[in-house]
Amino acid sequence: MTEKLLSELTTAAVGGPARKYVRAETEQEIMDAVAAADAAGEKVLIVGGGSNILVADSGFEGTVVHIASTGIEKLDIPACGGANVRVAAGHNWDDFVEYAISQEWVGIEALSGIPGVVGATPVQNVGAYGCEVAQTISQVRTYDRETGQRKTFALADLKFSYRDSILKQSMVNGSPRYVVLSVDFQFTLGNLSAPIRYAELARQLGVEVGDRADSATVRETVLRLRAGKGMVLDSADRDTFSTGSFFTNPIVDDALLASLPDEAPRYPVTDATSGAVMEGKTKLSAAWLIQHAGFDKGFGLEGDSAAIAGGRASLSTKHTLAITNRGGASCADLLAIARTVRDGVLQAFGVKLVPEPVIVGESL
């Protein structure tokens, strides 16, 4: 166990020291590290790829368990067709997506380029370009800190919804009850993608929404789109020093929807597993709300009259959803931008934006 700066473990490159740091490379090491910290009455913070977490500048007064387990295992389940695969929690997500495409496992190609590890994906039901992991996950194996035993969640028990799950709901101050050990996926087989559900991606592929395309081409196209938005990690591009999309797309009821401008984009809300449309709920574009509340790309940059973080943090210069570390930013700097944007959108439209990353030791 050693002290380690959280800024070294997070894609936003902010966060003070962890009092204790443990790198866990196997399921047993994960369980032992968490159990030991719990037995000692210490706070526990689980870190994987560090792409969806902001830690206070004061650091974390407890034990940080860094999930570093890797491995992909093909399961033999006679009753299930296609490919059934178990992936270790610490396995790099995009490496897994690339491997899945090479094996002609269909369903996650549109999730290419997302930073982080496999074990983090079911926690907030990671999604992009019309796809969510809920569509391919079959079960999640965890360590239950309350019982000290392994617990397996079947798909129905995970209670997936937009950027949410029972795993996320169990968190207290960023610390989970259930620590993910591995994730099982069930894939259909082939070299054509799942149906394309996102209009921008369909246009880039030259297909209609609902059509399929070559999976490898879908991956290449998604990577290009993400890179153009600063959403693929690149040490030479400060726009990628972020937690990705800082705010989720808000879901509102019909009463609030009626008060919004007609030109505000509207999207149906669907059940994460069945795909059924949910009546009386509509998803809005957080990016549109942010921009039309007066916050443009690069808001907060040095020289901007609104450089509230001294130019050290700003909205991405490529799109308005990411809050970026321009160099030398603190957690407080990023949160200053976030609060200004959140409050501005609330004042302009009456919609309260909700942060997507886990915020530890601070509050928005």
UniProtKB/TrEMBL annotation:
PROSITE patterns: FAD_PCMH. Its main location: cytoplasm. It comes from Rothia aerolata. The gene is murB. It is found in: Cytoplasm. This is UDP-N-acetylenolpyruvoylglucosamine reductase. The active site is at 163, 245 (proton donor), 356. Cell wall formation. Keywords: Cell cycle, Cell division, Cell shape, Cell wall biogenesis/degradation, Cytoplasm, FAD, Flavoprotein, NADP, Oxidoreductase, Peptidoglycan synthesis. One of its GO terms (biological process) is cell division. Pathway: Cell wall biogenesis; peptidoglycan biosynthesis. Residues 14-190 form the FAD-binding PCMH-type domain.
